[in-house]
Amino acid sequence: MEKEKNVEINTIPRLFWDSVKSRGERVAMREKDLGIWQEISWSHYGEKAKLTGLALHTLGLEKGNVVSIASEGNPEWLYTDMGTIGAGGISSGVYKLQAKETPSGFIPIWVRLVREEFLVECIQQTRLHRLSI
Question: pTM for the full model?
Fold first, then answer.
């Protein structure tokens, strides 16, 4: 049995960026803000994910590092998730109940999303970095 020669390997970042490119201004997600549903386009989602990935890379994210995201379920979580994966990191959601039980050595970079300003705080080896995206 022969293997196919033109098999395209799809990765999560490739599928994400294909969606951003092909769907552009179409709605990727909606979020309720003060009781009103706000639409977020694929292009906006892509831009925020790209900026987040670049910011994490600037703060020292290397391929294979784990980025633990502590946040409520919101678009910023998704921006950080895709930004992390796109930058070569491994995204790991940390829920409030898990935060105190995280094993030592597991979190090279910790991201806490502050909703109002989409402030990303990265704590790495006792250094605190703040970056507004």
Answer: 0.72
